[in-house]
Please model this.
Amino acid sequence: MVLPRVTVLIPNHNDEQYISKAIDSAVAQAYEGLLQICVVDDGSTDDSWKIIVDLFEGDTEEKLIDDLQLVSGKCKGVQLTALKRPTAGGPSAARNTGINLTINHTDVYAMLDSDDEFYPNKVSKCVELMSENSDSIGAVYADYDTYNVHTDKTIREFKEPFNRRRLLEECIVHSGSVVSKKALEATLEETGYYDELMRTCEDYDLWMRISEKFIIAHIPEALTLVRVTNKSSSAVVNQEVWQQNWLRVMEKMRQR
Model:
């Protein structure tokens, strides 16, 4: 069996402290199929871009695509493509930029936030489950460990098995999930794979759309380390914006 081509997609904005750790965790995946990494720097004003570019080893290809700066090459033997957006457009725009660039040579996306890390078997376990029924399973999520950088404590986050009724109540699917190209293409909207009009809840909106056409599967094992910092959306985006975006998710569902 030919294993799916996997792209680990990492949007980054001002995460100079952690971005290299995220990329290293993607490079270290114990996946026997073709794996590449795509990092989209979303208008960072810190040293993120320099840190990303310094990870390349050997020859690189550099070019401009419209207003995007692109560098591609190898990082510890794994294909790495880095894109720099000139201004910040938010996580949806950053992810969509990476998807649009790589979708013609990707079968499965593994979504990784720039301040988190994959455990080495994240991709292989999620792809294995997805491959058991690739026509029906559109996304796979798993448990994860949350590490609070302020208290230095790690807590296991046990996610519940997928149930669409529960998804209607709250986002039970982890944002750092593995998603098939087929599911992304089947649920594409005018506002993008991820809705670019949303600053938060954009992943919830995507899971809702995918769940209408595909199965979403759960692995009861921690496969990601999630850092709790003071820069996450829950910390920097006010509750009014969260509420507005949640209502947008519900309204879009009703319209469909």
